[in-house]
Specification:
It holds the Pfam family HPPK. This protein is α+β, with helices and mostly antiparallel strands. It contains six helices and twelve strands. Helices cover 24% and strands 27% of the residues. The protein is elongated and about 80 Å long. The chain binds adenosine-5'-triphosphate (ATP) and 2-amino-6-hydroxymethyl-7,8-dihydro-3H-pteridin-4-one.
Length: 296
């Protein structure tokens, strides 16, 4: 994680790049632009001067420099962009203004941008030298990865050519998950509710993989895939074209639990379903569900 070493008012703060190299910097300071930002009506009507400092962090010594403007960030273009933003759409907060400038500055190819917005004529009823806000924004290239959750999804179908349903469903699911592994498909006898008429056999399988989606966002994706396969939500435990159950969701090895009926975690019936546990154990022999090994 790049270190943040900003002190207030210090727009020349250092940034260490991965590997410990200190960033190279292009700094544009003291750019004075009239703008109409502020929460008060008189600020919106009369406007005032905003002074902007922008520090673009780059890494120059790996760049094939050749004394060529095309190989670097042209500070004149950055200045034009800053003037366009500051003199443009009025905003309430200088925080928002600083953020917009930083986002725009990153578009020029910087690895990070520190932006300070000074508002020396701010409506403060005391004698003061300056008021300013500094933000640092990092390019995507420097952002640390989010920790991915390890998830287990149960797949089942017993309608409309179940083998094809499972194959298509698994293909779509593989696009949602990372580093996914799919068990073999199994033919299983339908487990029905007491009193429910018998149903055709199921094809069942399990996919394990990783995601940065939240549990609810992943459930929505599963439901989208079910719906795309013509799933009609009628009878509980009724025959279905495709059923995708979120069986387990773990972050850093710890199972996320939920009692919410819209998303219960782990899946409340998975522990008693051999059509879930067996394929899960096949792709993840050390898998655990609620503290118990899935390999029985
Ligand atoms: N872990 C979960 N995975 C998928 N759906 C869940 C989960 N927990 C709760 N649900 C909710 O269950 C509702 C009904 O799901 P569904 O119709 O697939 O149940 P079912 O397949 O008939 O039964 P089962 O859940 O026993 O497989 C869904 O609308 C969903 O919001
Ligand atoms: N064999 C089998 N039986 C079931 C299955 C399933 O996927 N496989 N799913 C059910 C409700 O989701 C109910 N019964």
């Amino acid at each position: 994680m790049p270190q943040l070493l900003l002190s207030r008012g210090d727009s020349m703060a250092e940034l260490y790049l991965p590997g410990g190299e200190l960033s190279d910097r292009i700094a544009l300071t003291g750019l004075k632009v009239r703008g109409f930002h502020g929460v008060f009506e008189h600020e919106r009507e009369n406007g005032q001067d905003f002074i902007i400092d922008v520090v673009l962090h780059t890494s120059m010594h790996r760049t094939p420099y050749g004394d060529d403007l095309a190989q670097t960030i042209n500070y004149a273009e950055v200045a034009d962009k800053v003037v366009e933003i500051v003199s443009g759409e009025p905003l309430n907060l200088i925080e928002t203004l600083a953020e917009r400038i930083a986002d725009a500055a990153l578009q020029f190819g910087a690895l990070a941008a520190d932006v300070t917005v000074h508002k020396p004529q701010a409506p403060i009823e005391h004698s003061f030298a300056d008021v300013d806000v500094t933000v640092r924004r990092l390019s995507k290239l420097l952002q640390p990865p989010k920790p991915a959750a390890e998830v287990v999804v149960g797949i089942g179908s017993n309608m409309d050519d179940p083998v094809t349903q499972v194959e298509i469903g698994a293909g779509k699911l593989a696009k949602v998950l990372e580093y996914e592994r799919m068990s073999r498909r199994r033919v299983t006898a339908a487990e029905v509710m007491p009193g429910q008429p018998s149903q055709p056999n199921y094809i069942n399988a399990v996919m394990v993989g990783y995601t940065t989606l939240s549990p609810l966002a992943l459930l929505r994706e599963l439901q989208r895939i079910e719906d795309e396969q013509g799933r009609v939500r009628e009878e509980r435990w009724g025959p279905r074209t495709l059923d995708l159950d979120l069986v387990s969701y773990k972050v850093a090895g710890k199972e996320i639990t939920s009692d919410d009926p819209n998303l219960t975690l782990p899946h409340p019936r998975a522990h008693e379903r051999s059509f879930v546990l067996e394929p899960w154990a096949e792709v993840d022999p050390w898998g655990m569900l609620s503290g118990k090994p899935v390999r029985r």
